[in-house]
């Protein structure tokens, strides 16, 4: 049975895996968009096309949750109190006020105040996380454990956020705290087995709030984040459209990683 909310859609599967793509939403209400600078209309910091790239997981029996609204409305992968995820690093915030390049997102004086942030959190952030929690509990009840893969993508070079160029594929497990050691090793080996993309485990992106909040291996819930560079599947310039040749090359690597998750069992430790 599938679930739909004003702010997300959830397609339930029969396997123990839930795939979340919290930053691929593209909707912004017009009154809010009008308060932002014109540049915001391009939604340049979106995790583009991830619902499309991960659509295959449903055929493998996994669940898939997809948000409706842009991360410019609210960042679903940040803690509700907006505590820093990477202390000392630049950040855009729970209700972002800056682009990933550091420039202001809003017209002067039109940023959201604390009351508006609270409203957005209640309307958009909370329903998504309630659904995540319910689905993980359902999967754990059905299988004895649950798996969560949090899918992200980003421009490969963003000096305001990180130095240099990112590896193509960035697997994050909160330095091993969000999943069992054998699962972390199995996913790492899956990435090592391919030769098309550079990769790293627990590098610059170790996993955001979703992985850190729900990854509780001692309680039977194992979580990991995959941050991909846009260049793996599309040009990194507007109009941000999927390149069939690039995405076709990426597809086997994504499928192999998901298959690794589906084949893993807690008894592997």
Write the layout of secondary structure elements.
Blueprint: E1 3-5, E2 8-11, E3 17-20, H1 30-33, H2 50-53, E4 63-67, H3 114-143, E5 146-154, E6 169-172, H4 181-192, E7 199-201, H5 209-214, E8 221-229, H6 244-263
Parallel strand pairs: 3-4, 3-5, 5-8, 6-7
Antiparallel strand pairs: 1-2, 2-4, 6-8
Helix pairs in contact: 4-6
Walk me through the structure.
Helix content is 28%, strand content 15%. Helix 4 (181-192) runs antiparallel to helix 6 (244-263). 41% of the residues are buried. The protein has 6 helices and 8 strands. It is globular and about 55 Å long. An 8-stranded mixed beta sheet has the order 1-2-4-3-5-8-6-7, sandwiched between helices. The chain has 269 residues and is α/β, with parallel strands linked by helices. The longest helix has 30 residues, at 114-143.
Percent helix range = 25-40%
Strand order of the largest sheet: 1-2-4-3-5-8-6-7
CATH superfamily: Zn-dependent exopeptidases
**Could you tell me the strand content as a percent range?**
15-25%
Q: Radius of gyration in whole Å, from Cα?
A: 18 Å
Question: In one word, what is the shape?
Answer: globular
The span between the termini is: 32 Å
- What is the number of domains? 1
How many strand elements?
A: 8
Mean pLDDT across all amino acids? 96
**For the record, what CATH class applies?**
Alpha Beta
CATH topology category name: Aminopeptidase
Counted by DSSP, the helix tally is 6
Derived structural class: alpha/beta
Unreliable sequence segments = none
């Amino acid at each position: 049975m599938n679930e739909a909310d004003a702010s997300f859609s959830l397609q339930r599967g029969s396997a123990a895996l839930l795939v979340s793509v919290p930053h691929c939403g593209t909707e912004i209400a017009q009154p809010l968009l009008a308060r932002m600078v014109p540049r915001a209309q391009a939604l340049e910091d979106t995790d583009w096309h991830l619902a499309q790239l991960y659509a295959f997981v449903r055929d493998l029996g996994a669940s898939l949750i997809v948000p409706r609204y842009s991360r410019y409305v609210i960042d679903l992968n940040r803690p509700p109190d907006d505590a820093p995820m990477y202390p000392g690093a630049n950040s855009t915030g729970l209700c972002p006020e800056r682009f990933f390049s550091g420039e202001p997102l809003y017209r002067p004086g039109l940023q959201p105040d604390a009351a508006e942030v609270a409203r957005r959190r209640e309307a958009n952030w909370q329903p998504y996380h309630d659904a995540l929690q319910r689905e993980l509990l359902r999967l754990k009840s059905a299988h004895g454990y649950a798996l969560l893969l949090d899918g992200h993508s980003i421009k490969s070079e963003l000096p305001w956020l990180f130095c240099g160029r990112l590896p193509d594929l960035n697997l994050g497990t909160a330095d091993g705290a969000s999943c069992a050691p054998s699962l972390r090793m199995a996913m790492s080996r899956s990435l090592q087995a391919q030769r098309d993309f550079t990769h790293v485990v627990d590098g610059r992106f170790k996993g955001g709030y979703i992985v850190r909040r729900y990854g509780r291996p001692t309680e039977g819930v194992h979580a990991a984040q995959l941050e991909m560079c846009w260049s793996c599947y599309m040009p990194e310039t507007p109009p941000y459209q999927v390149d069939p040749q690039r995405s076709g090359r990426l597809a086997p690597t994504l499928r192999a990683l998901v298959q690794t998750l589906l084949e893993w069992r807690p008894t592997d430790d």
